[in-house]
Design brief:
Order of helices and strands: HEHEHE
CATH topology: Rossmann fold
Distance between the termini: 23 Å
Strand content: 15-25%
Strand order of the largest sheet: 1-2-3
Number of domains: 1
CATH superfamily: Isochorismatase-like
Oligomer: single chain
Shape: globular
Number of strands: 3
CATH class: Alpha Beta
Structural class: alpha/beta
CATH architecture: 3-Layer(aba) Sandwich
Helix content: 25-40%
């Protein structure tokens, strides 16, 4: 399991980015938070497509607000990537 490998290597902070903001990215952020990780989201490094109700831009903006419940949300250049 990925959780065991990460924790076994002393990793407790994750930076999340990816595709399908409202699906894979959202689920990954919530799951990582529930497993006790310190989560940072690169607010400008996740994406999706328009759906029949709202645009991709609206989905991304909305989720960046929701993600603040579970993580720190920053532009990628403001994230402190550690060795």
């Amino acid at each position: 399991m990925l959780d065991e490998k990460l924790k076994g290597n002393g990793i407790n902070e994750l930076v999340i980015c990816g595709l399908v903001t409202e699906g894979c990215v959202d689920t990954t952020i919530r799951r990582a938070f529930s497993l006790g990780y310190n989560v940072e989201v690169a607010r400008d490094c996740h994406s999706t497509t328009d759906n029949s109700v709202i645009s991709a831009e609206q989905i991304i903006r909305h989720h960046n607000q929701v993600f603040k419940i579970f993580s720190t949300v920053q532009y990628w250049q403001d994230i402190n990537f550690k060795d």
